[in-house]
Amino acid sequence: MRRLLWPGFAGLVSAALGVSTGQLVATVINQQSGPLYAVGAMVVDATPARVKEFAVRTAGTYDKPLLLLGIGGAVALVAAVLGIVAARRRWVGPTGFAALGGLGVVAALTRPGASGLDVIPALVSTIVAGAVLVGMLRAAPPTGSVGRTGVLNRRAFLGGVAIVVTTAGAAAGSQILGGAAARTRDRVRLPRPARPAPALPAGLAPGFVTPNADFYRVDTALSVPRVDADRWTLSVGGMVDKPFALSFDDLLRQPMVEEYVTLNCVSNEVGGPYVGTAKWLGVPLAALLRRAGVHAGADQIVARSVDGMTIGTPTATVLDTGTTPGTQQALLCVGMNGEPLPLEHGFPVRMLTPGVYGYAGSGKWITHIELSTFDAFDAYWVRRGYAARAPVKTASRIDRPGPFARLAAGPVTVAGVAWAQGRGIAAVEVQVDDGAWEPATLLPEPNLDTWIQWTHRWQARPGQHSLRVRAVDGSGTGQPGERANPFPDGATGWHTVAVTVA
């Protein structure tokens, strides 16, 4: 067993140094081309939609770190085995790392918008890992000396130092790259909107606006894209008469509007957390489309992100937003709750389309807008089985009391939110156990594209109880009670909370 320690350790050190070096090189070329990120993104793309839903539902925002940890663990296991086998057959080590590097090359080249330079990090990882393994095996302790004091420990210490130094270098390089994006964000001075958002009505409960730090994040980016606003450009093309491009400064000079809009993810389960309301600042997208001159028949807007994500939005939806009283316009957003977009929410520019789920109208870190057709192109999530057109369904949620809460008998305030973008909420009803549905009190509604807060006074009696909520939208249509999973076009069902009254 002791004879296996050094070659196994050598394999681990070699892989760690190789991957860390590749990640460091990627910070200079393209952060998304780092071996771990590229392979991870390929795994995400190949994962069935229902498995992704399970991952989001189970792990929440930890899904990406867990995926990277799993890939790293698999590489470590393979590297240790390569080291052990290579102790007898030296050619196995470099060959095995070459195979792993080949996987990284394929992953990098299959990313949208990839260039030849994106293979360099994986190639560097392969060369470094193979060279280090050969060198460490040549420097292996003499037979029978592995257990002597200081021999393995000294080499292990030096190997550990090398891992720490290289990994720290990769992390530092990533921070430098991310720091450049953060610095440009810090320099941004948002312009005054030509049309400010109306003041929120009096009588709203705390929490109507979701702080940026608490706003949900669901996307496929394993590392947050770090975009330098000074170098960012947006191109508008495809089926248009006059394609054009804008720099970030050009966009800031356009007339801006400010709106309160609720955004929610199609992955949101009944009663789930992936929904929030913010005050957004941006340029009306319809105005830019009219400037470009959209061709007849161009029924889809394809937004492309710097990380390769594609979002498909019905053209008519964008052109129609804001035309009905009480509804808001689709925007190219530069601000969120009074500050430039946070990096993780799309800095420098994201798209926001009220009335549709995020995957169908709210791409982040976008750099291209292309007019196309639904027949000609399937966006990322549509290729994975999600609906091409995804209007937000009527939904409601109980926020207070929380699940399995223990309450004192007597008056209890039941409260939550409901939303039906573009239609508004006409009524909310609450049911206790199997009793009659009782009307809740609706708080003021700023516009038809935000959620609405509601409260209900319940005289709680001792025992175990189920609280249930449903909503009726502005068209008079009731929220469906039948439970349906988020895939492929959004969840349905009445949110139910179990509580115990002492």
Automatic annotation (TrEMBL):
<dbReference type="GO" id="GO:0020037">
    <property type="term" value="F:heme binding"/>
</dbReference>
<dbReference type="GO" id="GO:0006790">
    <property type="term" value="P:sulfur compound metabolic process"/>
</dbReference>
<feature type="transmembrane region" description="Helical">
    <location>
        <begin position="91"/>
        <end position="110"/>
    </location>
</feature>
<feature type="transmembrane region" description="Helical">
    <location>
        <begin position="66"/>
        <end position="85"/>
    </location>
</feature>
<feature type="transmembrane region" description="Helical">
    <location>
        <begin position="117"/>
        <end position="137"/>
    </location>
</feature>
<feature type="domain" description="Oxidoreductase molybdopterin-binding">
    <location>
        <begin position="222"/>
        <end position="381"/>
    </location>
</feature>
<protein>
    <submittedName>
        <fullName>DMSO/TMAO reductase YedYZ, molybdopterin-dependent catalytic subunit</fullName>
    </submittedName>
</protein>
<dbReference type="Pfam" id="PF00174">
    <property type="entry name" value="Oxidored_molyb"/>
</dbReference>
<dbReference type="InterPro" id="IPR008335">
    <property type="entry name" value="Mopterin_OxRdtase_euk"/>
</dbReference>
<dbReference type="InterPro" id="IPR000572">
    <property type="entry name" value="OxRdtase_Mopterin-bd_dom"/>
</dbReference>
<dbReference type="InterPro" id="IPR014756">
    <property type="entry name" value="Ig_E-set"/>
</dbReference>
<keyword id="KW-0472">Membrane</keyword>
<dbReference type="GO" id="GO:0008482">
    <property type="term" value="F:sulfite oxidase activity"/>
</dbReference>
<dbReference type="InterPro" id="IPR036374">
    <property type="entry name" value="OxRdtase_Mopterin-bd_sf"/>
</dbReference>
<keyword id="KW-1133">Transmembrane helix</keyword>
<keyword id="KW-0812">Transmembrane</keyword>
<dbReference type="GO" id="GO:0043546">
    <property type="term" value="F:molybdopterin cofactor binding"/>
</dbReference>
<feature type="region of interest" description="Disordered">
    <location>
        <begin position="473"/>
        <end position="492"/>
    </location>
</feature>
<feature type="transmembrane region" description="Helical">
    <location>
        <begin position="157"/>
        <end position="182"/>
    </location>
</feature>
